[in-house]
Amino acid sequence: EQPVMQHSGEAFLMEMLAAMDQHMQQLRETQQGLVATVELACRRALDRNFGRLVLVGSAALRVETPGSDVDVVCFTRRDGAEAVGLPVDVLRRVHWALKELISQYSDYAASFSMEMIEDARVPILRVLWGPADHPIAVDVSVDQSRPVDHVRWFQRVGAAP
């Protein structure tokens, strides 16, 4: 049988996808470190009211591309009658806790920035780390179950790991 010749466009796409996959595997390690730092800040900001931090969006579905941000949801837990506050208030506390954390590591402080997006339908704290021209971005929201439901749906239908 004749070997099937690959079209040059097809070969190019395969090489490009392989290169993107390798790039993303290298990035994931750094992203995981940044997400772990965000989780620590959420724990410090919320103390007993911290529930869990959940990876959502393209990173959770493993369909991210270079330049994709990492989306996480910080879930709070009510401790008795004590109210946790509005999501934007929780994000302000996380913002403050992250500032405190980063200030302890002066080597990294210059590569680190944050932006509060309060006027969006869903308030977000955008955490940026790395070179200014292409930083890694982690977008933090609070108590948003819909993105978690989306990931679960894709997993249930077998379209995501």
TrEMBL record:
InterPro entries assigned to the protein according to its UniProt record, in alphabetical order: MTPAP-like_central (IPR054708), NT_sf (IPR043519)
Record-linked Pfam families: MTPAP-like_central (PF22600)
Phylogenetic placement of the source organism: Eukaryota, Sar, Alveolata, Ciliophora, Intramacronucleata
Species this chain originates from: Strombidinopsis acuminata
UniProt superkingdom: Eukaryota
Protein's UniProt name: Poly(A) RNA polymerase mitochondrial-like central palm domain-containing protein
Poly(A) RNA polymerase mitochondrial-like central palm domain: residues covered: 30-145
Xref: SUPFAM superfamilies: Nucleotidyltransferase
